[in-house]
Amino acid sequence: MNNGFYKNRRLKSFLFFAVCFLISIIPHIFHLKNFFYLTFTISFLIACYGLNVIFKNKKRAVSLINDSKTIGEDKLPMLDILVAARDEENVIERLVERLFDLDYPNNRLNIYIIDDGSADKTPLILERLSRKFDKLKIISRSSNAGGGKSGALNYALKFTKGEWILILDADAQLQKDTLPRLFTFVSDGSWSAVQLRKSVINVNKNFLTTCQSMEMAMDAIFQYGRLSIAGVSELRGNGQLINKEVLLKCGSFNEDTVTDDLDLSLRLLLSKSKIGILWNPPVMEEAVENLSALFSQRQRWAEGGLQRFFDYGDQLFSKKIKLIQKFDIIYFFTLQYALPIVSIVDLILSILLFESPSYWPISITAFTLSGIAVWYGSSCKSEGPVLRKLNLQLMLVSLLYLSHWFVVIPWVTLKMSILPKKILWKKTLHTGI
């Protein structure tokens, strides 16, 4: 991707921020008499679609896979598991040992660990593990190979032989019976890709990890509802199963974005490839444990989320996707990316001008929908780490936690608008809990 494309992203980011800013200041400049009724009407429409999305999960609750009817071994396809690992000495041994303990025919499973230029003891640990597990395949790249996680995965693809690719992070943990149940789900739904629900291992470590576990449950609720209504769903990086042929037709992993999963999700949608969401069993992973790591991670997610819309936005209005899918994408793009900017600017102007905020009905509606999804997701029957029992106080705390996006999104958008940006991948530190 050339420098002109980066400038194009920068220009689009600036225009997006400028439009959100103008929307924010209009009611403060013109003092429109009926503006409250407009925001109330918009809030009502947002609530109607959002509630419909959330409560579509009732369908999921009554259609769980019967574990006694998992697919037979003779029907399980050839599977390649790919793990891109850089400086993962704390977790890599645990991961490899658990992968070789999974219930899956040995002659149909290949496990590839990509040592992506590690500077710690990861290469030594992998070398020792390769002597213990004959079928462990180690692929090494230099630290300056480029492309980040996407580059590592693309490099490893040429060594793979399977029909399906399962992407895991180095801190991932799977239940022993995950793979047969996963392919039972694939055969039942004819999916091109499947995302396992993400679950937090260290859920009770502290306030942040507890909130992240509830946030992941909320995200899965929205994902399943969107899939049920509009056929729109997204991959989440860790625990994503992809048909190799479909992946190659989509152009593999984009090395010019900081969130390869979100980028690939949009390309799969444009190619009419379906992404299924599997609630149980989950993929378990570590949540970050401090504010610095949280904001670093969320800034990367926000930047990658915006990049995909700037890169493929024109195609989203083509005939490649259905009308309901366009509506769904615009709906969640507005709530996730536009509303935080509008709300923060509106709040700042209200304080400076001693006026009431103008867009508070929409913000309150968005937070209410999030709260309902948190409650629903936390109360669902879930395998894996047990979520904290939700009460009113914990729900309010979780909503306070979610407000960090109203800081992250405006800040990241502003940075993308005014600062020259190189593609940088910042890995999350895994401690091996």
Give an account of the 3D structure.
The protein is of the alpha/beta class and 433 residues long. It has helices at 3-30, 35-55, 57-61, 92-99, 122-132, 148-157, 178-189, 207-230, 244-249, 260-270, 291-312, 323-353, 360-379, 392-402, 405-418; strands at residues 79-85, 109-116, 136-141, 164-168, 193-200, 240-243, 275-285. The protein has one domain. Strands 3-2-1-4-6-5-7 form a seven-stranded mixed beta sheet, sandwiched between helices. α1 (3-30) crosses α11 (291-312) and α1 (3-30) crosses α12. The protein is globular, with a radius of gyration of 22 Å. Mean pLDDT is 90; it is low at 1-6.
Tally of individual domains? 1
Total of helices:
15
Number of strands: 7
Q: What would you call the shape?
A: globular
- Beta percentage is 5-15%
Helical content stands at 40-55%
Order of helices and strands: HHHEHEHEHEHEHEHHEHHHHH
Radius of gyration: 22 Å
